[in-house]
């Protein structure tokens, strides 16, 4: 019934919060991973010599992968939340029609 659908929505609060935090953490990690690459690009643009950056590139690629994974997980949680909300709305509509 309606209570079950409400409980289902409430159950999504913690997973959504965790998924959102994971995206935020991944974004920070990606920004940190990009700093040495941005610095190297600025050095090269200024005519300076850029030392080996392959480790920095690998770190940035890993951070990009982790960011994509966390975004995918968040999107899945959002889709689940929307489905649960839709089911609650349907149940409320049914109840409203019965009362009318």
Name the shape in a single word. Answer: rod-shaped
User: What's the helix-strand series?
Assistant: HHH
Distance between the termini: 18 Å
Low-confidence stretches: none
What value does the Rg take, in angstroms?
23 Å
Derived from helix and strand composition plus strand pairing, the structural class reads mainly alpha
What fraction, in percent, of the residue positions are helical? over 70%
The proportion of strand residues reads under 5%
- Tally of strands: 0
- Number of distinct helices: 3
**Mean pLDDT value:** 94
SSE order and pairing:
Elements: H1 2-11, H2 13-45, H3 54-99
Question: How would you explain this protein's 3D organization?
Answer:
The protein has 100 residues and is mainly alpha-helical. 89% of the residues lie in helices and 0% in strands. It is built from three helices and no strands. Helix 2 packs antiparallel against helix 3. The longest helix has 46 residues. The two termini are 18 Å apart. The model has no long low-confidence stretch (mean pLDDT 94).
Comma- or semicolon-separated keywords:
mainly alpha; 0% strand
Overview in brief:
This protein has 100 residues and is mainly alpha-helical.
């Amino acid at each position: 019934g309606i209570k079950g659908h409400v409980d289902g929505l409430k159950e999504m609060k913690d997973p959504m919060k965790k998924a959102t935090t994971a995206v935020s953490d991944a974004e920070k990690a990606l920004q940190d991973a990009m700093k040495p690459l941005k610095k190297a690009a600025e050095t090269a643009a200024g005519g300076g010599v850029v030392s080996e950056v392959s480790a920095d590139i690998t770190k940035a690629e890993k951070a990009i992968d982790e960011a994509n994974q966390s975004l995918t997980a968040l999107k899945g949680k959002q889709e689940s939340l929307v489905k649960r909300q839709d089911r609650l709305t349907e149940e409320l509509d049914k109840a409203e029609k019965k009362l009318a």
